[in-house]
Design brief:
It contains 36 helices and 25 strands. With 1002 residues, the chain is of the alpha/beta class. Helix 24 (572-588) packs antiparallel against helix 26, helix 26 (605-629) runs parallel beside helix 27 (665-676) and helix 31 (776-788) crosses helix 32 (805-820). It is globular, with a radius of gyration of 31 Å.
């Protein structure tokens, strides 16, 4: 449970309230008096005119955005180049990457509209490079000709220089010393700066230590270079909490508080010693409560008493921004100190939208319309201004209308400041400085290498380069000033228009076909506590499941055969409604099934919740598909006087044999697919997870599936074999090992009578290919998730990682460091990342493989497992992929290095396994990705993301070769395999002629 600090309860607010309700409240106070609005118009107009008449000979981000808008191919290509090029160490990959991106835009004929040196130099370099690379040429051919003409080094150098040129303007310095020197030399008035040490969040303990030391060195350097002016007129530093801890996540709350708070306090004490502004940066919405807990704990440190420089950033696009301001005010009151508050609009909007959709939340934590963010920003500004002097507002904005509105609301120019990003807003704030010398503004300046700048720069481009952005519109002479002066309240109009019309609620993502399954956000403390409490009250059924005998299995088949006729004649609409009722029951009893999955299946909390959602999605998806496929049939074309209808109907009795690794989702997926197709089912679950199957069958019966249509047979592989061999079986759906699938296939082939279909999904030696353009932090996240989540017990899990030799050392080091931070233990604990393997037999097999690998391979990481059926993550480097000859079903990752020119050998090694289930690719080179996809016959390919967790109806799942028969589960072609086809042709003209044709007019 969270600890209370400074007698202040933990922050609490609705995570994702309704946009309309918030808009209604904000609109009530949005209007100002006519004279105030007129003054705002005049001020904003003057600032916009300054932006439009600015002719900075060097140029800035705004110039680049105008020149290469993100709505153009050139702009998108430039963004990807900027994000990745400077981290590519080898010439070959850099050449292919440059060619790939420059071919996507028309840099050759691009006519530069700007006179800025930055824009012209970048455009010249990119255009020169593009001229060498002719459209339509293959990468291999182009690189060959470039080499002959000695063009490749020139292309590479020119394009890298263009990226460095942009970087040098958007970063204040590559070191804090260089940044301080540049900052102090730019003006005799020593403007205010807040320095931001660039870098991604920490993935390893070593990352966190390095970032901590970087912050500490920067504070020391900033403090020693500062003069004696008092706060707030002093320099500052921004600190990112996720850079200081490798598992900065809500489920690791206790660990974060123990390990991170002392580090933050240490940095804050150091900043206090120099009386600096010390700002904790904003993170994603799911980290807000955790961030505020950390901030509250650090702020309450007695050693910080008497210092007014501690602050934080608040994002106005978050619906909880107003409540966060109230909380911060209470925090300052409780400590009897002042706090500095930077108000920003927010930089992770697209990520927040996607995360909420993936998690099936009731709503979004951020506004779906940018205009509502603008409106909320002003509301938050009002609140902050009213809370002066206890809170010192710092308004970060490049929007002239926002600046003008805040000036009007503030009254005087004291007790607040504006902030701008280095390289942006220069014309606006230069004009403001002339008009209002009493107004202070601070420059937020990134510090770091050009390589570290990349992710920052791309985020700024995405944030400010959208067509709707004020920055993108302000300098466009074609956009009337009057348009830029439209108030957010006027654009929204009424609360009914608060929500973006093209962004459905997460629950409605798949409407009108079906509803999305409901999840929760673990970063919402109240929701997580409700779930944990509900799980804790659940009781798992006691007693031992009695395994069936061969006689009972035969009886179940006979009963299912008797029930087939009635069930197959049940209308498809009725069958679909039964499955939808089952989905509702699953959601209502989510806590019960999560408890079962944790206690019988060893599932961690996130895995168990995801599995309940997947099972729910299967019920709804197959219900929707069943309505379309098994309704009135499909009318076929034909001559007049004749009707031709193709209908699907059930085959008979289907045997469904499911695995233990997804004992609810795959079990229900198989059973509901067979049922909706009109078959009766005999379900044989894995012997390790009988309780889950028993409860699932009871739920389906309660939802309306007749007992005669669904029989449950418990037992081991011998019972499964007996069912498969039964002469009355009309089909088998199986998920499990390739060896068992082969055995089933042989048994079915040996039977007399009708040819029985087998739908099999088996395993794979699943590979991921990582080249030098990939972002290491993203690779580490995705590899650790793909290889070690669910203790590696997913058929889609990553087994074999190919890493380009030029980046292998750093990549492997980061993956190993991230794996070291995973917590093994009781799966019922929310902070557990890796639970046990399924049983002692599985552990014995994995331990034997680990022992062999320790003899034959290079060990990069060997985790320590607690007592019980636990196997810790391991990472082994192989000399050759051929050393891995079979699927290893556990948290063991095998790594192979490859040279860029030998990618073809990698693809042949993957083909040689014979498997084709999942494949991961991490590359920014589109041509390379397309070539790999074209070359390899693999069922599910994931590019620049993890390779597990296929979503029903979104990523239909299943492989080929040794990995299965197809069709894909959760896809549009799956149900037809459970059915037979029947064509009904009727001569409608048989009774005396074609009346319909004769009655038709001319």
């Amino acid at each position: 449970m969270p600890v209370e600090y400074a007698s202040l309860p933990p922050f609490s607010a609705a995570y994702a309230p309704d946009d309309g309700a918030i808009a209604a409240r904000l609109l009530l106070d949005a209007r100002l008096g006519a004279e105030q609005e007129a003054r705002i118009d005049a001020t904003a107009t003057r600032l916009i005119e300054a932006i439009r008449t600015n002719d900075d000979p060097l140029g800035g981000i705004e110039d680049m955005l105008r020149e290469f808008a993100l709505s153009t191919k050139e702009g998108l290509a430039l963004m990807v180049l900027a994000e990745a090029l400077l981290r590519v160490p080898d010439a070959r990959t850099a050449d292919l990457f440059i060619e790939d991106k420059l071919a996507q835009g028309d840099f050759v004929r691009h006519e530069t509209k700007s006179s800025a040196f930055l824009v012209n130099a970048s455009a010249w370099a990119l255009g020169m490079s593009a001229r060498v690379i002719q459209p339509g040429e293959t990468p291999q051919g182009t690189i060959g000709r470039l080499t002959k003409r000695l063009g490749a080094p020139a292309v590479r150098a020119a394009t890298r220089q263009a990226m460095r040129l942009m970087g040098s303007h958007f970063v204040l310095g590559e070191t804090i010393e260089a940044a301080l020197s540049r900052a102090n030399s730019q003006s005799a008035e020593r403007p205010r700066y807040s320095f931001d040490m660039l870098g991604e969040g920490a993935r390893t303990a070593e990352d966190a230590e390095r970032y901590f030391n970087s912050y500490a060195r920067a504070i020391e350097a900033i403090g020693r270079a500062a003069d004696n002016r008092p706060l707030p007129d002093r320099p500052g530093i921004s600190v990112k909490l996720s850079a200081l801890h490798p598992r900065f996540e809500a489920v690791s709350h206790g660990r974060v508080m123990r390990e991170l708070v002392p580090r933050l306090v240490e940095l804050a004490r150091q900043a206090k010693a120099f009386n600096l502004n010390f700002t904790v940066d904003a993170e994603e919405a799911d980290r807000l409560e955790l961030s505020l807990d950390v901030i509250a704990a650090a702020f309450a440190d007695d050693a910080l008493a008497g210092w007014d420089g501690f602050g934080l950033a608040i994002q106005a696009y978050q619906k909880r921004a107003g409540e966060v301001i109230d909380y911060v005010d209470q925090l300052a009151r409780s400590a009897n100190r002042r706090m500095m508050v930077r108000l920003v609009k927010g930089a992770y909007w697209d990520t927040e939208i996607k995360r909420a959709q993936e998690r099936g939340l009731d709503d979004y934590p951020v506004f779906t319309r940018k205009t509502l963010t603008d409106l909320n920003y002003i509301a938050c500004a009002r609140k902050l201004l009213a809370l002066r002097p206890r809170l010192f507002p710092q308004f970060a904005t490049h929007n002239a209308l926002t600046v003008a509105t805040i000036l009007e609301l503030a009254g005087d120019g004291s007790s607040f400041e504006f902030q701008r990003l280095h390289g942006m807003g220069e014309a606006l704030y230069a004009q403001l400085a002339m008009d209002r010398p009493d107004i202070a503004f601070r420059t937020y300046a990134p510090v770091g290498s050009h390589r570290d700048l990349l992710a920052y720069l791309v985020r700024r481009l995405l944030e400010n380069g959208a067509n709707s952005s004020f920055v993108a519109l302000a300098a466009d002479e074609a956009v009337p000033v009057k348009t830029l002066l439209r108030r957010p309240a006027d654009i929204i109009g009424t609360a009914e228009h608060a929500r973006h019309p093209n962004i459905p609620l997460p629950q409605d993502l798949y409407r009108p076909e079906r509803q999305n399954s409901r999840g929760i956000e673990f970063g919402e403390r109240a929701a997580l506590n409700r779930l944990l409490s509900a799980i804790g009250t659940e009781t798992v059924p006691a007693g031992r499941i009695v395994e069936s005998t061969a006689e009972k299995a035969n009886a179940a088949v006979a009963a299912a055969r008797r029930g087939f006729a009635r069930w197959s004649r049940t209308p498809a609409e009725t069958r679909a409604k039964i499955l939808e009722r089952a989905a509702e029951l699953l959601q209502q009893r989510a806590a019960h099934f999560i408890a079962l999955l944790q206690r019988e299946g060893g599932k961690t909390l996130d895995d168990a919740l995801s599995e309940v959602r997947e099972a729910t999605d299967f019920c709804r998806y197959y219900a929707a598909q069943g309505r379309k496929l098994f309704g009135d049939g499909e009318a076929m074309p034909g001559p007049t006087g004749e009707s031709n209808v193709l209908v699907l109907r059930g085959r008979g009795v289907f045997v469904a044999i499911s695995p233990w690794n997804f004992p609810l989702a795959i079990f229900l997926g198989q059973v509901t697919a067979a049922l909706i197709a009109g078959n009766s089912v005999v379900a044989k679950p894995a012997e390790q997870t009988p309780l889950i199957a028993s409860e699932a069958v009871a739920l389906l019966h309660e939802a309306g599936v007749p007992a005669s249509a669904l029989q449950l047979v418990q037992g081991d592989g011998r019972i499964g074999a007996a069912l498969v061999a039964h002469p009355d079986i009309a089909g088998v759906v199986f998920t499990g090992s390739t060896e068992v699938a082969r055995s089933i296939n042989r048994t079915l082939a040996a039977k007399d009578g009708p040819i029985v279909p087998l739908i099999a999904e088996t395993g794979g030696i699943n590979a991921m290919i990582v080249d030098a353009t990939a972002l290491p932090e993203q690779v580490a996240d995705d590899v650790v998730t793909s290889a070690f989540r669910s203790a590696g017990q997913r058929c889609s899990a990553l087994r074999l990682l190919f890493v380009q030799d030029d980046v292998a050392d750093r990549t492997i080091e980061m993956i190993a460091g991230a794996a070291r931070e995973l917590r093994l233990g009781d799966p019922t604990g929310p902070s557990t990342h890796v639970g046990p393997v399924i049983d002692a037999e599985a552990k014995q097999r994995l331990d034997a493989h680990i022992a062999r690998m320790k003899r034959e391979a290079r060990v990069h990481f060997a985790g320590t497992a607690p007592e019980g059926n636990f196997v810790a993550p391991h990472i082994f480097e192989l000399a050759s992929a051929s050393q891995l000859t079979e699927e290893v079903f556990g948290p063991i990752l095998h790594v192979v290095r490859y040279r860029a020119e030998n990618l073809g050998d990698v693809l042949r090694a993957i083909e040689a396994t014979g498997y084709g289930l999942t494949l991961g690719i991490h590359s920014r080179i589109d041509d390379a990705v397309e070539d790999i996809v074209e070359r390899l016959s693999v069922g599910n390919i994931y590019v620049n993301r993890n390779m597990i967790g296929a979503v029903v109806g979104v990523q239909p799942f299943g492989g080929c070769g040794l990995s299965g028969t197809g069709p894909k589960a959760g896809g549009p072609h799956y149900l037809a395999r459970f059915a037979t086809e029947q064509t009904v042709t009727v001569n409608t003209a048989a009774a005396g002629g074609n009346a319909a044709l004769l009655a038709g007019g001319e």
